Amino acid sequence: MNHVQAMSILISTFHHARNPSAIDQGTFARYTERTAFERPLTSGVAYAVRVLHSERKEFEKQQGWSIRRMDTLEQTPVHKDDEYDRDGLEPSPVQAEYAPVIFAQDTIAHVISVDMLSGEEDRENVLRARESGKGVLTAPFRLLKTNRLGVIKTFAVYKTDLPSNATPNERIQATDGYLGGVLDIESLVEKLLQQLASKQTILVNVYDTTNISHPISMYGSNVSSDGVKHVSALNFGDPFRRHEMRCRFKQKPPWPWLGITTATGILVIALLIGQIFHATINRIAKVEDDYHEMMVLKKRAEAADVAKSQFLATVSHEIRTPMNGVLGMLHMLMDTNLDVTQQDYVSTAQASGKALVSLINEVLDQAKIESGKLELEAVCFDVRATLDEVLSLFSGKSQEKGVELAVYISDKVPDVLIGDPGRFRQIITNLMGNSIKFTEKGHIFVMVHLVEEVIESSEEFKMESSLKCTLSGLHVADKRQSWRSFVAFNQEGSASFTSSSLGQINLIVSVEDTGVGIPLEAQSRIFTPFMQVGPSIARIHGGTGIGLSISKCLVQLMKGEIGFVSLPKIGSTFTFTAVFTNGRCNWNEQKSQQINNPSNSVSSEFHGMRALIVDPRTVRARVSQYHMKRLGVHSEVVSDLNHGLSYLRTDNRVTNMILIEQEIWDTDLGMSSLFVKNLRDIDANVPPKLFILANSINSSRVGVANGFSTPFVIMKPLRVSMLAASLQRAMGVGNKGNCTNGELSGSSLSKLLQGRKILVVDDNNVNLRVAAAALKKYGADVVCTDSGKKAITFLKPPHQFDACFMDIQMPEMDGFAATKRIRDMESDINSRIQLGQLPVEAYGNASSWKVPILAMTADVIQATNEQCQKCGMDGYVSKPFEAEQLYQEVSRFFHVKPNQNS
């Protein structure tokens, strides 16, 4: 019976869990015949599938036969194999569901297509089996073909995700089908008797005693005997039915031999029990020894983990401290007068230093992930501005290669989300960094949508995978395959991704490229830390091989999933999901975000303008429209210059600007010149401005014949701040594009730091010079000191300092202890002023003293960050720091002074 139940697991695994099924009737018949030795007490096995009435027509069409009635089959007299006519059976009557047999052993193959629910006894058997989750038996009946007495043992086959404590109703809903084993009672008993062979003749009778008043004889004759009778219960695994076996010798057994055998058996059992008891005691002692050894190893492992964290913190500090000086001095050197060659040398050295710092950060991230100490922030951020920042990082490399680089974010994605923008940016940067590294032609395209939007619009996303609808016109790996294993796209998991009304935002981000792709043999280890695709990858392209591993861990922390699809020589598409919260920030946070992200504070001079985009590719035109819409510009798209002229002539509204793709302009300069000439003839008060959208400045030919002015060139990738600056310069509005490439303007920091008095504390003289130079550059009044004790003296109220940048690791007194002493001193003075023990006038008429103290350290371990907050520090700046990092910290404490120009 165990072997019969095991077959139900085989069917669940290879029939229901596979699409298409890995089993057919021929396979089932061959397998069951070849494994019949495992089931010597059964005369055949069959499997019936559960079919609802709404599925009957489609099911019969797939099987090629109609579902037949069992009651007709039961009434049919016994036939030989060559005389049996299955097609002569009547179709099963209409009912709510059916259980037709689809697989059967050759010995009972005649039952295929027969509905097990149409027979009264079998129907009760099937319904009890699926409700109870156990094997059940039918009453004895005459087997077809043999006319011998038999019973059927039935097991229900459930879906794999059925819980162990499921209710009967849940079991019914989770039922896939029913597996039955036919037990020939006469053969069963005869085989048992062969195993119990004896010199004396044994008479055996088997009865079904479910109805004790009318037992049913299943085996044996009714010949009476005077021998000793023994009655024992039989258990076939069905608690509903009862069976008995009655055995007797024709003659009385020899009592002396029975006594000797019994005594010998008891002695053997006693010896076995003693052996088991002795082995058990030895086993318990060994388990205790292993436990103590395991605890010792556990303590050693914990100590090793602590030592590793301390080692990483120390090494990080020791490496990042001199790197802070190197990068700071290089940055100061770039502000001096250098020739072209010197600028190139300094830029190369600075890029190498930043690459080293990035490598250190990746190794530290991996260590924090392994120790489980990596935590995410929950702050408001603008996802569109974040993607613009990432584009700025790769714009130079993409222009150098001539690779199309673009971002598209769905209108349904909210402007402000709550989450960790730094880690979100890190994931996309890792994926785009790999794409730009391995892509020499074509495009890299980042798409951001809501998960429910993708689920509801699967056909639309299917169309985007066609050749004509790609960004560059090259073949791409179908991005739908990259999310094929996501729970969000399973039929039962999709319901959990429709909760945007409750404030939960489920994003899905795809990074698509047309690079070299990932070899098939390497795709299984792509997320393994420190693993490269091939032995030559690190030598050709560089990298550590942990970017994707870190990205996967970050995605999991964001309650998302990540997957990919890659085709060699075609490209790769990585897709991940992340869960955020719909952000509604207060006024101060929104104002701070607008300052931190200049792309958000674009002036409104473009609102209401109209633009015409000339681009034959649908996806690329949609990207251009997306960025124009962010500026408040309404845009229309045409496929070529002729259609553009037709649109301008027929449209009565004013078109302020025309954006033409570089490939359209460069294909035929004669046609481009004719377009410009015809454009001049169109009656318009102010002719529209011409712009060329180019990937590479080196390959763009934008000259126009007839002495006409050269169109303006807008370099891709498009970002809203860069696009606004280009339009402002060309159209003579706004600030004429002072902001370049979406980077933070130095004037923003100058407005905040101008005239501020700041104390910098660091025991390293080089770091002091770098920090002081960086702050003085933006107009701050900087005072430097090299110890924590001196810092306490400087910051004793009353003082004139607006902020303090404090190093952490210093001799005599570290930054933690110094900060705690300063906070205690401030708290004591504030309480005494409030109690009237100290005059307010002696402390600058300030009743509350608390100077902002920002940690300035090369140690970026999470524990250090927590200790900074615990001792009373207000912020955290990791060395080496840059202008943007400084701004993000000081903007929380300083505001632009009223007398400064804004």
What attributes does this structure have?
alpha/beta; 6-stranded antiparallel sheet; 27 helices; transmembrane helix; single chain; 902 residues; 31 strands; 18% strand; 7-stranded mixed sheet
General description of the model:
The strands form seven sheets. Strands 15, 16, 17, 18, 19, 20 and 21 form a seven-stranded mixed β-sheet that branches. The chain is of the alpha/beta class. The chain has 27 helices and 31 strands. Helix 18 runs parallel beside helix 20 (669-681). Helices cover 41% and strands 18% of the residues. The model is unreliable at 74-82, 536-542, 586-601 and 736-745 (pLDDT under 50). It is found in: Endoplasmic reticulum membrane. It is an enzyme of class 2 (transferase).
Oligomer: single chain
Distance between the termini: 85 Å
Helix share, percent: 40-55%
pLDDT averaged residue by residue:
80
| Outline type | flat
Sheet of most strands: 7 strands, mixed
Number of extended strands: 31
Runs with pLDDT <50, length 5+? Answer: 74-82, 536-542, 586-601, 736-745
Number of helix segments?
27
Strand content: 15-25%
Helix-strand category: alpha/beta
Radius of gyration computed on alpha carbons: 40 Å
Layout of secondary structure:
Elements: H1 2-16, H2 25-34, E1 44-49, E2 51-52, H3 56-63, E3 68-69, H4 70-75, E4 97-98, E5 101-104, E6 114-115, H5 120-132, E7 136-137, E8 141-142, E9 149-158, H6 168-173, E10 175-184, H7 185-195, E11 202-208, E12 216-219, E13 229-234, E14 243-249, H8 255-334, H9 340-371, E15 379-382, H10 383-401, E16 404-409, E17 416-419, H11 421-438, E18 443-450, H12 451-456, H13 458-463, E19 504-513, H14 537-541, H15 547-557, E20 562-567, E21 571-582, H16 587-596, E22 610-614, H17 618-630, E23 634-638, H18 641-650, E24 657-661, H19 662-667, H20 669-681, E25 689-694, E26 712-715, H21 720-731, H22 746-753, E27 757-761, H23 765-776, E28 781-785, H24 788-794, E29 803-807, H25 815-834, E30 853-857, H26 862-870, E31 875-878, H27 883-890
Parallel strand pairs: 3-6, 16-18, 22-23, 22-24, 24-25, 25-26, 27-28, 27-29, 29-30, 30-31
Antiparallel strand pairs: 1-5, 1-10, 2-4, 7-9, 8-9, 9-10, 11-12, 11-14, 13-14, 15-17, 17-21, 18-19, 19-21, 20-21
Subcellular location: Endoplasmic reticulum membrane
Keywords: Kinase, Membrane, Phosphoprotein, Transferase, Transmembrane, Transmembrane helix
Enzyme class: transferase
